[in-house]
Amino acid sequence: MSETPPPDFVLGQNNYGKSEVRLFKVKRDTAFHEVWDLNVRVVLEGDFDAAHYHGDNSKLLATDTMRNTVYALAKDRLTGSIERFGLALVDHFLEVGPTVTACRVEITQYRWRRIEVDGQPHAHSFVRERGERRANVWGDETGARGVEAGIDDVYVLKTTDSGWEGFQRDRFTTLPDTDDRVLATIVTAKWEYNVIDADFDRLWDGVMERTLETFTDHYSPSVQNTLYRMGKAVLEEFLEIQRIWYSFPNVHHIVYDLGRFDIENENEILHATHDPYGQIEGWVERRP
């Protein structure tokens, strides 16, 4: 086996890690238990040339070890936000990986809400909610760190106060104007923090609250306008956030034609369809 790679074929950007690490933790040292339900992905970058070129694994951390590390560190380091747990994992892998120069940890948290009994939250019984919390934490050997958070799979709908009119028309346009339609979408969002020492739980809850409140508080002439309003509301309230990105698939609710049965339909009976759908995405950022 040649000690040097052929000159015409060299290794480009590469990384490796462990995905789909399903971690569930129960905090049992108080009367009211707490739970964390996570899916963790670890990604390492560094000088892995020897393994690729020569099959030399002597300086590679096994992905099985990465999985074990996630569970082991969760015992003492997963006590609050998933962002802080991600930072702890990043610091660990940068320290123990002999040729690791950068690490990224992606975490999805599935949310569980306490069941209420006679109006009181139960101490140890939960129901899983729709909607996911995301965190993407990275760091490198220089000491640089970054934290990004997010929302996924939050289904929202309002039955009025939305329209779509005055749009450009050409010979293929068939859609009529409307100033009263159902607006429904599945919210995906991510935002970048300009700090790495913050109350991440409070901030995530706040972004979710401002996003949902803004969805309700105006007539929406377009999903684009609502996207900008949401981002602006978040950035105005939370100075720790540098910019925020939203993705909104337009879940169409189309008025079903009951006229052919001589039945009046005043925007009451609708056909909900996912395919095909419009996709509206964009960043809202602080001015440089």
Care to give the gist of this entry?
This protein has helices at 49-54, 63-77, 82-96, 200-216, 223-237; strands spanning 16-27, 34-46, 100-117, 120-140, 145-158, 183-193, 241-249, 252-255, 270-273, 279-285. With 288 residues, it is of the alpha+beta class. A hairpin with a 4-residue loop joins strand 4 (120-140) and strand 5 (145-158).
Key attributes of the depicted protein:
Urate Oxidase, 288 residues, 24% helix, eight-stranded antiparallel sheet, globular, alpha+beta, two-stranded antiparallel sheet, 2 domains, 10 strands
Looking at CATH, which topology of the largest domain would you report?
Urate Oxidase
Largest sheet: 8 strands, antiparallel
Q: CATH superfamily of the largest domain, please? A: Urate Oxidase
CA(first)-CA(last) distance:
53 Å
Shape: globular
Would you state the CATH class of the largest domain? Alpha Beta
The CATH architecture of the largest domain can be given as Roll
Q: Please write the string of helix (H) and strand (E) elements.
A: EEHHHEEEEHHEEEE
Instruction: Indicate the low-confidence ranges by residue numbers.
Output: none
Task: Record the strand order, biggest sheet.
Answer: 1-2-3-4-5-6-7-10
**What number of structural domains do the residues give?**
2
Description:
- The chain is of the alpha+beta class.
- The chain folds into two domains: 14-143, Roll (Urate Oxidase), CATH 3.10.270.10; 152-288, Urate Oxidase (Roll), CATH 3.10.270.10.
- The chain is 24% helix and 39% strand.
- It has five helices and ten strands.
- The chain has helices spanning 49-54, 63-77, 82-96, 200-216, 223-237; strands at residues 16-27, 34-46, 100-117, 120-140, 145-158, 183-193, 241-249, 252-255, 270-273, 279-285.
- The strands form two sheets. The chain has an eight-stranded antiparallel sheet, with helices on one face.
- Helix 4 (200-216) runs antiparallel to helix 5.
- The longest helix is centred in the last third of the chain and has 17 residues, at 200-216.
- The radius of gyration is 24 Å and the shape is globular.
- The N and C termini lie far apart (53 Å).
- The relative contact order is 0.10.
- The mean pLDDT is 96.
